[in-house]
């Protein structure tokens, strides 16, 4: 009996370890039935998440108060309980409260909101500039470096997964994976120049806290500084035609050494550079899983 219990405990513990390690390995990925924000991968995203939690301390009590008042008024002042309607036209105390109260609440919301906006529009000096151009229905990227690198990023079709070495749907989800990811180094400020060639698009990565419209004839600017390695996904967030839902965005954050190696090779052989980087990154991830005894 003791042996059965010990075996059961070991199996249960192993299952938990698998779930924990798998979750950690793909913490940068969207998850099924996820109803909260994705894990933040930048300081700005962390601030956005904090501000959302902060506003809930105001939203929830106000919602409950309004609900209580609606129920109380409906019951207290119903026709059967008040055959003679009240003739009260105003109440100075109540009017002062409902005027000053919201002003105070808005001040508590405005101050951290302005601080967040200031942070979003006050980037550090960028070490890398990437231009993203929206097309119907894919993205084009240009690295503004000494040896320019440019490529298009299209939705990865199921028929092309094997050739691309991206058959793992947990790491490369359907309708989110692309043939060529944007590659950036961890801990470096990336300036993003966003425009479009045809209609309005929107470049969005939720984990970075970045959402910037791509407008034809205009260049908008955004920035991010990823502090976690991983493969991060987003989608065009502006209705842009029939294939709007098939225009994903993928950014791979890697070590500075891996980025430099990729950049040196990508100018002459993008496909080879991508596959070499993919093998290095996924090999490291598999080593971590193996080290956990899975």
TrEMBL record:
Domain of life: Bacteria
Listed InterPro entries: CcO_II, CcO_II-like_C, CcO_II_C, Copper_CuA, Cupredoxin, Cyt_c_oxidase_su2, Cyt_c_oxidase_su2_TM_dom, Cyt_c_oxidase_su2_TM_sf
Subcellular location: Cell membrane; Membrane
Known catalytic reactions: 4 Fe(II)-[cytochrome c] + O2 + 8 H(+)(in) = 4 Fe(III)-[cytochrome c] + 2 H2O + 4 H(+)(out)
Main location: membrane
Tagged with keyword Oxidoreductase: yes
Transmembrane segments: 54-75, 96-117
GO terms for cellular component: plasma membrane
Cofactor dependence: heme; Cu cation
Residue intervals of the Cytochrome oxidase subunit II transmembrane region profile domain: 29-124
Gene Ontology biological process: ATP synthesis coupled electron transport
CDD domains: CcO_II_C
Note on cofactor: Binds a copper A center.
Bilayer disposition of the protein: Multi-pass membrane protein
UniProt GO MF annotations: copper ion binding; cytochrome-c oxidase activity; oxidoreductase activity
Family label: Belongs to the cytochrome c oxidase subunit 2 family.
Known role: Subunits I and II form the functional core of the enzyme complex. Electrons originating in cytochrome c are transferred via heme a and Cu(A) to the binuclear center formed by heme a3 and Cu(B).
NCBIfam families xrefs: CoxB (TIGR02866)
Name of the protein described by the UniProt record: Cytochrome c oxidase subunit 2
